Amino acid sequence: ADVLKIIEAAKAEGMTSEQEEGIRQIAADAQVRLVVELSNLLKLTATDFDITEDQFKDLKAIQTFQDTEAYISTAVYDFSTVTEVTGTGVTGEVEETTASI
């Protein structure tokens, strides 16, 4: 799905200021985490980003997705049982596989 189109549609239908701030925070967190992860993966330095060492250190120290991680750590998940028909046996009877997820 095109995330930007979904956000635009939600804005058109009316968003609260809290929802807009939440989207802004998610976008900022995503950009910070991307820069930090890319810098680790590609061994990039402050010079590569044209910033000072102190700015780079501060950037890498930013805690991202704190609200999301707090929610996930306390969320209650509702797992259900799924039954899937996997085929028919030698005698023609239906074989089912049941898994709890």
Secondary structure blueprint with pairings:
Blueprint (H helix, E strand, L loop, with lengths): L2 H11 L3 H25 L11 H9 L4 H9 L6 E8 L5 E7 L1
Antiparallel strand pairs: 1-2
Number of strands: 2
User: If you average the pLDDT, what whole number results?
Assistant: 84
Q: What portion of residues is helical?
A: 40-55%
- The ordered string of helix (H) and strand (E) elements is HHHHEE
Main beta sheet: 2 strands, antiparallel
- What's the helix count? 4
| Radius of gyration from CA coordinates | 23 Å
Q: Globular, elongated, flat, extended or rod-shaped: what is the shape?
A: extended
CA distance, first residue to last residue: 25 Å
**Global structural class:** alpha+beta
Strand content: 5-15%
Low-confidence residue ranges: none
Walk me through the structure.
The chain is α+β, with helices and mostly antiparallel strands and 101 residues long. The chain contains four helices and two strands. It has helices spanning 3-13, 17-41, 53-61, 66-74, and strands at residues 81-88, 94-100. The protein has a two-stranded antiparallel ribbon. Strand 1 and strand 2 form a beta hairpin. The longest helix is centred in the N-terminal third of the chain and has 25 residues, at 17-41. The mean pLDDT is 84.
